[in-house]
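Reply to dn_fold:

You asked what the input looked like. This is it:
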Amino acid sequence: MNHKIWRHSSQNTTKHVEVNFIEKVASERHFYSSTSCSIIWFLSWSPCWECCKAIREFLRQRPGVTLVIYVARLYHHLDQQNRQGLRDLINSGVTIQIMRAPEYDHCWRNFVNYPPGKDAYWPRYPPLWMEVYALELYCIIFSLPPCLRISRRRQKQLTWFSLSLQNCHYQMIPPHILWAAGVIQLPVTWR
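and this is what came back:
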């Protein structure tokens, strides 16, 4: 089993990091139809619809490859093409998850080039924000209307998250996900 860590940044290129990775792996590795492997991928943003299409094509040509993608944030999650691209990836067998604290910590410690002495800086997004992104990913998976709105104020680098849930969200999203995002409170029984 090879646990090789591959680092790459999409700086100084016109291609997204997902396409760079696919091209590099395809050029360096010989995948035979009997080859089986698992790839765990940590991304700052979820793939756009075009990258989702490229990932699906890569996996279609390599049926023995399984892929798990951990993302820190959802890329243009209100764009219907991006939402459909993520659903198509999931329907093709790819696992997509929002990073939780352990994955974020692993990603930070193994892949981020932080300045010396700054390794304790973690996380950029508080755990509640991770839960809110997870909630929106559920909306995408279940083809529900978006419930997450994000607004940023550039001068002060502030980010606001607001949730707007409809009845369909409460009916389709598991209660433990709504609870983790602080949307509902679980009933308490006193004896």
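The helical segments are 17-28, 49-61, 80-91, 101-111, 127-141, 167-172, 175-180.
Hope that clears it up.
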